[in-house]
Amino acid sequence: MRMKKFINRPEDIVPELLEGLALAHPNQVRLVGNNLVARAKPKSPGKVGVVTLGGSGHEPGLSGFVGEGMLDVSVAGEIFAAPGAPRCLEALRLADRGAGVLFVVLNHAGDVLSSNITMQMAQREGLNVKLVLTHEDIAGGPNPEDRRGLVGFLPVYKVAGAAAEQGLPLEKCVELAERMERNSRTLSVAVRTATHPATGQPIFELGDDEMEVGMGQHGEAGTGRMKLKSADETAGLMLQMLLDDLQVKPDEELLVIVNGAGATTLMELLILFRRVHHILAEKRIQLVRAKVGEFITTQEQAGFQLMIARMDQELIRLWDAPCDAPYFTVR
Amino acid sequence: MTGRVDRQELSRMLAGAAAQIQMRHCWLSELDSAAGDGDHGTAMLRSMDRLEKGFAAGPPGCLKTCFHQGGWDLLGADGGASSSLLGTFFLGMADGIAADVASLDCRDLSVAFESGLHAVRQQTKAQPGDKTMMDALVPAIASFTTVARTGKSIPAALEAASHAASTGAEATRTFTARYGRARLLGEKTRGHPDPGASSIALLFAGFYDGLREPKGESGHA
To answer: How does the average pLDDT of chain B come out, rounded?
Structure first.
């Protein structure tokens, strides 16, 4: 099967996409050093820096969230592969404005390895860096180490970025990011596979009448294959698993994110969200904030991630605080 | 027999390893498609390119610096977990080599290999049996060390290491992944050897080929 993608040479995909991002959003981001995506206007001295890393091919994640009130620097790796420690260390140095750096890492083997090596090097250099790991994918089972980081990075970037922008100290930024993370749960489902843009190979096989709950961020085959269900049935099934896992009680306040995997239309995402809203209303659980759209994708994979997070007044205030990133703006 | 290896011979070993990866990178990517995203082969190509260039940029009189530079550049290949662990391995080898040493005997090389393995173990909790690169790396280095202790030549130790790595990698075919990204698939990973372990087997086969190939048994007695 011939791949139908608008790319040039496979080895140029990442530099060309980053160039495009910077050219399209010159007021928000710029490329510095070794292809790091940084805020166009660096944060004022004395404020905590916020840095992340991750493979490419998931646009707008993760570099689309660099900007005032969110990330200071994002280190983009190759397609679906973590960047190495040398560039991560460069990013931490760049983001350090004298008040320390918060390093947000999504729980995937390669990202964790790179960030651990980076943290060792950073400590040797005397940089003040704290790492917050996101791992809210309930498909990994009860052990937090086995849970991957999916779209839950978004509220963590938002809350940590807002706290840092307000000049809160590193310890407080870490506490808020961890509180946001601890109260987040995500589950994903795929109905059609994606093509790896560099190899041209399908990432996994899925029958025409099947869907798979628990799909990885990189399109790795998941664990719960079943016959395709309707939007309402799928939303209901996934929401119930999330509510049970987070042990949500009536009257609690939730943030809900429906994240499209790349080829699932906004039409479908809105239909799914509507059902989530209905179920929460029936259960007398308060849906206080919501986002429906594409925040992290896997090429043309069809499917979505459903995320819920338990909010409190402090988290809601930070979620509502202004920010200005290419793919996330609050005014 | 090759009693000692200097930068030129170590470069040949690395070139031999790169040649093995070059020959088999499509197969490595296919193995990775079974449980990962199918890019292990291309990541390994990038990694080997960086390792060779970094190593060659080091001064001939200081192998410690050569390995350090090679390892650091390999980390920068941005090839996910495999390049982070391999880069760590070569940085660890540098830690196991004394400063300003221009050549290594079989014992020195075994100390460097052990130091590389130690560094990898600091970064991953994976053990042999978990269907990872450790299934090839641990037996390869154990075999190298065993042969080195008997006072045999570097090629003899590399031959034993290569054999152990390839046996270890092949055995992963029947294992269930318990580590890394593939662990989430459990039983589905059976039937294919682990791509990381397969890469390690190719590296050791290449080290052996690279060292003995050009003129057969070479000069330094």
So the answer is: 90
Provide the residue ranges of all domains of chain B, joining segments of one domain with +.
4-212
Catalytic residue (one of A25, A108, A135, A218): A218
Domains with residue ranges and CATH for chain A: 10-182 (3.40.50.10440), 184-319 (3.30.1180.20)
Residues with Cβ < 8 Å from A233, sequence gap 6 or more?
none
Q: Where are the beta strands (DSSP E) in A150-220?
A: 184-192, 210-213
ipTM for the assembly = 0.82
Task: Provide mean pLDDT across the span A237-251.
Answer: 97
The fold of the B4-212 domain, in CATH, is 1.25.40
- pLDDT tens for B103-122 read 999 999 999 999 999 999 99
Would you tell me which residues 102-131 of chain A have a C-beta closer than 8 angstroms to some C-beta of chain B?
108-110, 113-114, 116-117
- B168/A126 Cα distance (integer angstroms): 40
> Quick check: B84 and A84 CB within 8 A?
yes
A139, two tokens: 């498909």
- Mean pLDDT along residues B41-51: 93
Closest chain A CA to residue B180: A109
Determine whether A58 is an active site residue.
yes
